[in-house]
From TrEMBL:
GO-annotated molecular function: diaminopimelate epimerase activity
EC category name: isomerase
Gene3D superfamilies from the UniProt entry: Diaminopimelate Epimerase, Chain A, domain 1
Primary residence: cytoplasm
Known role: Catalyzes the stereoinversion of LL-2,6-diaminopimelate (L,L-DAP) to meso-diaminopimelate (meso-DAP), a precursor of L-lysine and an essential component of the bacterial peptidoglycan.
Residues forming the catalytic site: C74, C199
Protein name (database record): Diaminopimelate epimerase
Gene: dapF
Pfam families, sorted: DAP_epimerase
Family: Belongs to the diaminopimelate epimerase family.
Length: 261
């Protein structure tokens, strides 16, 4: 069966999107998702998303990692599916949708290519040695690092993601370095099992962890540079809970086509 697909990217985190409101994809197995996301044998992407109907919401986001496993929340994917919903005419500039971690609100800028996505509140941040571990919709490990540009993110990220603590459920590994009034971040992503150009839940985790690290409270804005561009995180922190968290950045339609499933 031939179905339409759309390719989006948000700061270089790239995704294949399918409009599944009419249930064109009834079930999709792990191997099929992995093949579609393969950069040599498929379309190529860090993940695949289905946009589906959900009563009480504009739509539901169903997210698969590039290895074919159903993922947890994807922040950049969330921003891209909002841009996709606008492209399909489902929404105008604001939306409320359902994802695996719950309800999300989002807003698209007038220019149409900048999406601000509200993330779930976060209360727990744990320590693993000097690193911070928290869940922003997906699980993240955050480690302050020097000379990030020349770091071996693949091998060091792989080793942490596959150590005895994390190998069973996996974790996304973020290395962070101070960069002007914000941070530079590189991420080894679970489910892609490689470094990606950006990770939205990852930079969100970094911004929250760094606020805690620096004993900052109040309303905080954190600009973050990633390999694929620039993202921005805004949130409130009262010393215990992070709330009103917004992940902001570009989301762009790259191309569309047809694929046999
Ligand atoms: N790229 C994502 C994170 C996607 C989820 C993740 N790989 C996982 O399931 O652990 C983002 O932008 O947040």
């Amino acid at each position: 069966m031939q179905i339409n697909f759309y390719k989006y990217q948000g700061a270089g985190n790239d995704f294949i999107l399918i409009d599944n409101r009419r249930n064109v994809v009834k079930c999709i197995d792990k191997q099929a998702v992995a093949k579609i996301c393969d950069r040599r044998f498929g379309i190529g992407g860090d993940g695949l998303m289905l946009l589906e109907n959900e009563p009480g919401f504009d739509f539901k986001m169903v997210y698969y990692n590039a290895d074919g496993n159903e993922g947890s929340m994807c922040g950049n994917g969330g921003r891209c599916i909002v841009a996709f919903a606008k492209h399909l005419g489902i929404i105008n500039d604001v939306t409320k949708f359902l994802a695996t971690d719950g309800v999300h609100h989002a807003k698209i800028s007038e220019a149409g290519n900048w999406v601000s996505l509200q993330m779930i509140d976060v209360a727990d941040i744990n320590n693993d040695g000097e690193a911070y571990v928290l869940n922003t919709g997906s699980p993240h490990y955050v480690k302050l690092t020097a000379d990030l540009e020349s770091k071996d993110v693949y091998n060091e990220g792989y080793a942490i993601r596959n150590n005895d603590t994390y190998k069973q459920d996996g974790i996304n590994v973020n290395f962070v370095e101070k960069n002007g009034d914000g941070y530079f971040v590189r991420t080894f992503e679970r489910g892609v099992e490689n470094e990606t150009y950006a990770c939205g839940t990852g930079v969100t985790a970094v911004a929250l962890a760094m606020a805690k690290h620096d004993h900052q409270t109040g309303t905080i804005t954190t600009p973050i540079k990633v390999l694929g561009g620039d993202l921005n995180i805004r949130f409130d922190y009262d010393g215990e809970t992070f709330s009103n968290i917004f992940l902001e950045g570009p989301a762009e339609l790259v191309f569309e086509g047809e694929i046999a499933i």
